[in-house]
Amino acid sequence: MAKFRNYPPEHGLRVPAAYLEKIVNDMLLSVEMDEESAELIAGLLVANDARSVYSHGTKKLTEYLGQIRAGVVNPRPQVQIERDHGAAAVIDGDGGLGHVACFRGMTMAIAKAKEFGVGSVTTYNHYHFGSAGKWSRMALEHDCIGMATSSHRFHPNPEGMVTSAAGSSPISYAIPADKQPPLVLDMGGNMVSASDHNMEHTPGAVFKGLGIGTVIVSLGGILAGIYRPEVQHPVSRWESNQGSHLTAWDVAHFADVDYFKAEMDRYIGEARATKPLPGMERAELAGGMEWAWEKDSKELGIIVSDEHREYLEEHANECGVSTSFIDFEDTRF
């Protein structure tokens, strides 16, 4: 089995999403987050756990709770629309977690796509926005194609290689299908290191990774406005070091929706009927595994390993939130 990505644990408990959302919501409320934001973020983090994207699910609580307690992330941001012209808009995240600004941003992008065919919104003045796939996937239920990318504020290392001009900032595209899994690319821009070996044997991968990474920085960071002086220390009291670029395309403005989704089904189905890559159990395109894991989670509950359970219990205790994972011991496998 390939180990470069998230996978569900081999042993653990099956826990309902609603239960996990409740304890995460209560933990966020314990650090003075407003109720609407806490409910939103809890749902988004647990949704990632359901897809087995554990790296960007509830395991991010260490970072988020710590940053809020440290006073560098605003627990009650007043998200504002700074610009709104036709198919484009800009959103100020007011120093909060990026989830709040980006949820509003992608909601706007989808509405604009329905009106204009495309909607594109940038966000800035906020902290981490989580996995890019959360935002691109929002477009799917509206028969739209979604794109999300983000970058944090940094400067290339003058003592390092040109690869320091890009990092692992994410980009995601989500394309709807009907009966087949939607095509959801969700990745960091960093592909392979610029080692002597890679430059000799796979230079294309190095150059392509650098190219994708610099585009992500340009669209998800610079265009979004994260280098504006007013959102940097010492002017800003918040660690608002991230921005995003969120775009939706309404399929109906380009093609008949049923025909398009049928063609995506054909294409994805043909691809899934091929032989899998070495080390993989089955042939899936981007997002296929997460789609299957999410279906299982909805039917059976989200898999929580013992390590993950202990992690959640520890943070819940710190927040004064009670847990009762013992209630789900009959699901252990």
Can you describe this structure?
The protein has two domains: 1-70 and 301-333, Malate/L-lactate/L-sulpholactate dehydrogenase, four-helix barrel (Hypothetical Oxidoreductase Yiak, Chain: A, domain 1, Orthogonal Bundle); 78-297, 2-Layer Sandwich (Ribosomal Protein S8, Chain: A, domain 1), CATH 3.30.1370. The protein contains ten helices and nine strands. The protein has helices at residues 17-30, 35-50, 61-69, 98-116, 132-137, 196-201, 203-222, 257-272, 288-300, 306-319, and strands at residues 13-15, 80-85, 88-92, 118-126, 144-152, 170-175, 183-188, 242-250, 302-304. A seven-stranded mixed beta sheet has the order 2-3-4-8-5-6-7. Strands 1-9 form a two-stranded antiparallel ribbon. α1 crosses α2. The radius of gyration is 20 Å and the shape is globular.
